Please model this.
Amino acid sequence: MSGVWRASLRRELTLIWRAPADVIQPLFFFVVVVSLFPLGLSPEPELLALVAPGVVWVAALLAVMLSLDGLFRRDQESGALDQMLSAPVMTVVPVSAKLLAHWLLTGLPLALVAPLLGYMMQLPASVLDTLALSVLLGTPTLTVVGAIGAALTVGLNRGGILLAVLVLPLYVPVLVFGAGVVRTALDGLPTDGLLAVLGAILALALSLGPLAVALGLRISAGD
Amino acid sequence: MWKTLTRWYHQLSSPRYFYRFASAVLPWLMPIAVLVLLTGLVWGLVFAPVERYQGNSYRIIFIHVPASSGALMGYIAMGVAGLIALVWRLKMAEVMLKAMAPFGAVLATVSLATGALWGKPTWGTYWQWDARMTSMLILLFLYLGIIALQSAIRDPRQAARAASLLAVVGVINVVIVKYSVEWLNTLHQGATLKLVGESSINDAMKWPLLISMLGLWLLYAANVLMRARTEVLNRERRSGWVATLLAPGAKE
Model:
């Protein structure tokens, strides 16, 4: 079983590595969306710092969601998804490998770029590490929860907009606590408790999420 | 007692039995629901005493609170039905889940609209991002998501199972959302929430409120039975009993 898991992980990473647009585009989207806000609002540093936690977080959320639309679609078109579902291992094994690979190449880069964008949004340097940490803790939850929606909409024509309608309400807790952590740090208050809540949500998503994704794929396959 | 209950549960999970049960209950349930709801509303809107601080504007509580509770209970019931549909694959659980969504979404909308109308005279604003209003808005989004997913998938069984999974995930999410927005708001503005404390409600206002709540829940139940009955007919349209039922001159 762990052999299957490792092989699936290697396959996913190779696939994404050979078509790096899937990694670069969400990142590019993230940077572009955040850059629009100073142009649309006003370049005043105080105002930007005030809205920065929410702006960076909403942009990260949208970037993850948009990247998830194609998560299972290509596998479905090539027939790999059917093989995954009919393989003699539990579907959750390759699915969890897939989720990990997806997070490593979208969520993790977002967390690494977030401090830079925070700096561009005039956040003080002292809260940039908190921003990165909150994105690091939050994006795996976004990947797993969003993948449930992606699994349910995989065979549908207008998947993209439907995915947004299904998934964005489910992202609310991560957004509230993720942006909340950064705002709390801005106020100079301790952030441990809120980071722990983000971690608790992550633990819940990691333990039950992959099972729900596997079930969603089975439902979409007409099982 | 337990035996009767389980037998009833198994009988109701048969579409044919359910159809007969719903057809027998509905002619009674619908008028009773309307009567109870009207009693509660007329009592509350006309005869209940004027509130000391809010004057007559508080009377919207007799619509607002029943609608809010109905929307919340409806979503939780959808989660339970979804779990049953996923685990035991009961067809009727899928049908019930589908039947519960539209009225629940309407109730969430009514709750938001009446809440806004009530907020203007008491809080001075139609909209505030306080914990309860935000949760109800997210609840409405979740309802709409379920309806959208169901309408996007053509095969009714697959649509219902997909909606079941979404409803179960959604119920977990509603709980977390409730706590997250409460935290968000205790940080920013806790005081406004205290305005809607219901613990100290007078009996003269409590009874009409409870009656209109009961009436609205009964109306919800009747609406679900009606929708479920139609859905059963649609799903079973190829089976023999539907054919005989719908044959000209047939009686069930």
